[in-house]
């Protein structure tokens, strides 16, 4: 569908950028902060690229004013960040640490003073270690109450200052990496435990949204979901079926629960057959039904392409966390689908497909099925950057990537889809969980390497100046 004339971006479109606590803050044990599962997990040898940790990260905790100043100068309209649960409640369920809350209040006030809309993520993967030790974190239903209490504390404290709240960041990613692939904390590889923990996370998500409504907190709330459309390798019906399976098991399996309060029938049938279905207790569906979000938060990086996978086919693949192009090995689920190469798109050095049209397709699919406005909560390019001697960084590849995605968003808006805003990933460079510091995403370069923090000095990349103009011109990219 080509439009003769593209509809302009809405006047109040949120041109933003994003980060997450563990990836930027540092100050691991400062001002009463408790440890999170990530603080501990990264200490296990071999878990992260070159054993990198977020102990110091990019020191945003101490430099937030400088970072907000850079945002203000750029004209940023929104900044999405996450709150570290263990900074606010060090052991996850006991006493509140006022210093932790104060840090976030200072950050929010600083943003508001510069007319930047704070978008607050309640959970970006860093559950307090104390809850992991006490009751196995997301595997216990006690987490529902603790997560709701923690969220309520934030709602009440920042009510009126924050208009956009994100509940769980990429529930599909933290549960599958944490319990199926063993690559995120708690490092478990057990499909049964994965589906159980995921169900509990669904309940926690709904419970928080329910509390938000009951307390009549101002603003909008929704999850951030990692989604990219799935394509079939070709028109062979078996491959189309595989693509259909992938959408059902990796997208509808979460988004249907958020919006309709139930799992897709097809997936539940398969889980039951394979003795993997989560335990559903009385009242679960009633709670899920009360968790309908105001928007669908979308984290989009890439699309994926699949083909038929026989019952004795491949399962586990291999991730590229080194930046050596071509080192990914595709995985799949026997009997459902397996990943394959898309010959029509370019790839990053980490083998992620670059596909702006995929963003448009993905948003149209979300719009048709869920009829909710979309807030793009992440989109960006992780690449190597070079700091030149004069302090410049010529990240043309990032500008190209972002420009193409901004265009795709405008086309999607022209298709009739409601898009509230666009947060690029990320504002400053930051720690890429498993890929160290060399996989950079920011508009602002932070001078540090994997195991050398240097002075953590900030430099504006070419993309910083480019985005400034995009914001000024409300989406006109060149
Ligand atoms: C998303 C996360 O999965 O993608 C971010 O919400 C993350 O926290 C981003 O950094 C990019 O992924 P990666 O693995 O390249 O850091």
Task: Describe the fold and architecture.
This protein has a single domain (14-473), classed as Glycosidases (TIM Barrel). Strand 11 (346-347) and strand 12 (353-354) form a beta hairpin. The protein is globular. By secondary structure, the protein is an alpha/beta fold. Helix content is 39%, strand content 14%. The mean pLDDT is 97. It has helices spanning 21-24, 37-41, 60-74, 85-88, 98-113, 129-135, 142-158, 171-180, 191-214, 237-260, 265-273, 284-289, 356-370, 396-415, 462-472; strands spanning 14-18, 78-82, 117-123, 164-169, 220-226, 230-232, 296-299, 304-307, 332-333, 337-340, 346-347, 353-354, 374-378, 419-425, 444-446, 458-460. An 8-stranded parallel β-barrel has the order 1-2-3-4-5-7-13-14, surrounded by 6 helices. 6-O-phosphono-beta-D-glucopyranose (BG6) binds at residues 20, 23, 169-170, 173, 226, 299, 378, 382, 425, 432-435, 439. Keywords: Glycosidase, Hydrolase. This is 6-phospho-beta-glucosidase. One of its GO terms (biological process) is carbohydrate catabolic process. The active site is at residue 378. GO terms for molecular function: beta-glucosidase activity.
């Amino acid at each position: 569908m080509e439009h003769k004339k593209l509809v302009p971006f809405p006047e109040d479109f949120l041109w933003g950028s994003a980060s997450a606590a563990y990836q930027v803050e540092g100050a691991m044990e400062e001002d009463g902060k408790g440890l999170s599962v990530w603080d501990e997990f990264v200490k296990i040898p071999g878990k992260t690229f070159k054993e990198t940790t977020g102990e110091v990260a990019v020191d945003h905790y101490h430099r937030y004013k400088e970072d907000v100043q850079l945002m203000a100068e750029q004209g940023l309209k929104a900044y999405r960040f996450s709150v570290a649960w263990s900074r606010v409640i060090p052991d996850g369920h006991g006493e509140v640490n006022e210093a932790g809350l104060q840090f976030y209040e200072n950050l929010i006030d600083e943003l508001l003073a510069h007319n930047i809309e704070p978008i607050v993520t309640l959970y970006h993967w860093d559950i307090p270690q104390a809850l992991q030790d006490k009751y196995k974190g997301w595997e216990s239903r006690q987490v529902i109450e603790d997560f709701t209490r923690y969220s309520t504390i934030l709602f009440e404290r920042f009510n009126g200052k924050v208009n956009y709240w994100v509940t769980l960041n990429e529930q599909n990613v933290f549960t599958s990496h944490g319990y199926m692939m063993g690559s995120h904390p708690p490092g478990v590889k057990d499909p049964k435990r994965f589906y159980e923990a995921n169900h509990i996370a669904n309940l926690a998500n709904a419970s928080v949204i329910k509390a938000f409504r009951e307390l009549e907190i101002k603003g909008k709330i929704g999850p951030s979901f990692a989604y990219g459309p799935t394509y079939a390798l070709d028109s062979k019906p078996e491959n189309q079926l595989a693509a259909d399976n992938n959408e059902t098991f990796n997208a509808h399996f979460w988004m249907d629960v958020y919006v309709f309060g139930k799992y897709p029938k097809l997936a539940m049938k398969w889980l039951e057959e394979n003795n993997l279905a989560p335990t559903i207790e009385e009242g679960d569906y009633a709670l899920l039904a009360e968790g309908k979000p105001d928007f669908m938060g979308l984290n989009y990086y890439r699309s994926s392409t699949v083909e038929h996978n026989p019952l004795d086919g491949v399962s586990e693949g291999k991730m590229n966390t080194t930046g050596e192009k071509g080192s990914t090995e595709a995985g799949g689920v026997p009997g459902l689908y397996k990943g394959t190469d898309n010959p029509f798109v370019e790839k990053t050095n980490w083998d992620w497909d670059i596909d702006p049209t995929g963003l448009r397709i993905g948003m149209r699919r979300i719009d048709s099925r869920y009829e909710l406005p979309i807030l793009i909560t992440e989109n960006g390019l992780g690449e190597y950057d070079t700091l030149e001697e004069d302090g410049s960084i010529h990240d043309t590849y990032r500008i190209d990537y972002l420009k193409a995605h901004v265009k795709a968003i405008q086309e999607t808006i022209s298709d009739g889809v409601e898009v509230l805003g666009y947060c690029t990933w990320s504002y400053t460079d930051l720690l890429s969980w498993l890929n160290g510091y060399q996989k950079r995403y920011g508009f602002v370069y932070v001078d540090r390497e994997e195991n050398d923090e240097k002075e953590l000095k900030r430099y504006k990349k070419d993309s910083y100046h480019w985005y400034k103009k995009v914001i000024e011109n409300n989406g006109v990219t060149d």
